[in-house]
Amino acid sequence: MNKKFSIKRRVSLLTATIMISGSLYTISTIAPAYAASTDVKTMYTYDFNPTDQATEQSLFTSASASQVAWQRGSGIGAGDDYVLKGTHIGTDYTAANNAIHLALPQSLPAGYVYKIKVSFYVPSADNQGKSTITGPGVVLNGAYAVNQYKLPANPGTIAMDTWKTVDINTPVMTENLTSVDFRFVTNNAANHPDVWYIDHIEISQIGDPQPVPTWNLNIPSLADTYKSSFLFGNVIEPTQLDSKTTNMYKSYYNVTTPENAMKPLSISSAKGVYNYSGADSIIAWAQENGIQVHGHTLVWHDQSPNWLNKNTDGTPLTRSEARQNLQDYISNVAGHFKGKVISWDVVNEALDGGSLPITDWKAVARKSPWYMAYANGADTTKGESGSDFIYDAFVFARQADPNATLYYNDYNETDAWKREAMGQMVEDINAKWLTDSRNTDPSRKLIEGVGMQSHYNTAGPDPSQVEASIQRFIQAGVKISVSELDAGYRSNDGQASTTLTQEQQVTQANYYAHLFEIYKAYADHIQRVTIWGKADSQSWRNTSSPVLFDTMYAPKQDYYAVLDPSGYLVKQGLAPRSLYDLSVSTPDTNSLIAGLHANIMVNAAAADLGNYKVVAYLAKNGVKCSDEFQIVNGTAKISIPHAPAAGQYSVVVDAFKGSTLHASQAVPLTIIDNNFKVAVNGTNLNYTLDDIGNAVFTPNAKQLDALLNIDSQTVSIDLSDDRNVTGIKFIVPAERFKNVDKTLEFATADGTSKIKTKAIWNNSGKIRLITISAGEVIITNM
Length: 782
Ligand code: XIL
Fold this sequence. Notes:
binds (3S,4R)-3-hydroxy-2-oxopiperidin-4-yl beta-D-xylopyranoside, alpha/beta
């Protein structure tokens, strides 16, 4: 009975990443700095003389709660007889609705600093009963939500019956200056005049133009690119709601996180005091522009007022006082924004200083002011601890805004201990919620999401750690948001840099590409990706150039890497993620035997393998030692007529696009020595394998003599292993068989057998028919 070779395989995957330099995107260059000049060039003046009135009337208009009039009177003006008079009408004292609006005849170009001078006067005779009149000042381009455009920053007050000159410099305008509002900074009747004058308006341009960072609105939208995967956002401040930022935002993003405006310190400076003006301006802006808002953050140890959890002397409040404040604060704030935010970072950064193994997440809770207050009066016999504020916060947030998705948000979330602590915390709190009588919807978790802040840099964490954390949070059963992503450039020796070389930009972009390949792969679990900074110049980590746009707002390499991460890596000659998963196996493969024929079946799998030319071959130390066989539909057969000498080899699968190698995987494979030896005087006979699997020996004349004319010679055939060939053939010239009535002695591991020219030889259950006929000695397995 013929037997086949069986070939052992050992499977363990090796990854080989081949780096080949590829083409690079063009890098934007930063415009040169201009030498500062302080020349002042007057652009417009308005004195409200009768001769100018006709022109001025088309430029100056009143707002809804005021009137304007060109007024004359002896000495009424600031050094002359003419003013523009403002009169409040109705009951609305909102500053914007009482402002006098100047539409410039022609807008003044961006890139300059402008000087605006204007004199205000409040006549006491027309303002009986008013208290101090606050804040004369100007607002540029009607942008009441943009702090930089509301000047001066501290407008102060104005004494009655005294001219006060407001004299301010604008920031370098990033957009054209089109209008100026003259207004009093108050919405109160008591502090807003009913009658006032303005005079001697002077608008000048200062110095030379400066390079204006400009958003490119013709590049693909990040939000659109990822619209079927997750929301794509960035941060915003109330000072940044100008039209250029707005147009950029609408073009690139679909969700925003207030960078600071919704933090406790921004909202509540003192107990019972809630100031929503900044955050509300963001909400209004977002609603107007179709941008969703993520709330950040309700409970944090940082940027939070003391009243929440501390006494005035800094000692912690009691547990019950802190709990009451927590409830008041969250119900007020989350209640205020109910229906206006899609989600909240309910608790931020509550874990700290742990290490593996994590057995109790509460043991690694940060000893924050909230923790200390909650510990102050905790009944430890009931299992209470300082960390209980976390559970309470989520419950209060759920009650205040049941439709918002509730997140726990933290940084260093890729540290092994922290991912585990976060995972356990989420699992523990959600399990507890299931037993809570306030839970009206058991199908819904209390903590529904984990925010991975993702403040990274190119030196770490390794993207594999990001993936491991994503997997851990998925295991905890929650959604994920990449909530504050910025990945600065950092060399391995820790150097950060504000200006990146092209090579550094590419390094950073590759890092971003690897991250976004992961985010794409887990998109089903990711609700939102938010970049923490619109441009490097605006980032809180600006020293490491961490975000997608540079200081001139030009898209960096990072931006292109984010748009098409795999494509970007391919351009750099790096393997895209789809091929990281290239897995190779060699089913039915035992160890190959040197010299024998072998077929190795190879299976290869990867996400988009069909898009690559994939080949398989046998290699030793990276050197190919078989033909290449094309993998079709994930399989190939490597066919080797004669396996090479014994040793460690590998079955290699390479995936190419064109001539570029994108992935390479290897499975180790052993070729074992062929112990199936025929030795004559200690010299092995070489053999080949014929079509039907016979080991074919071709002894030379001397060997043949020894083999067939044995007197004292020993022919050893080691039959001790279980490899079977169909038969053994000695190819012997016919004339040598004239006299073959000889005994062959085969020394085997099991003993020695002597056979005649024709014999059936049995050794340990193995039967071989030895035939010596003309020209051949044949030993056949039976
Ligand atoms: C940062 C802001 O970006 C800065 O403007 C501010 O000065 C400090 O806070 N983790 C957070 C964010 O949750 O709120 C922080 O934002 C960055 C770290």
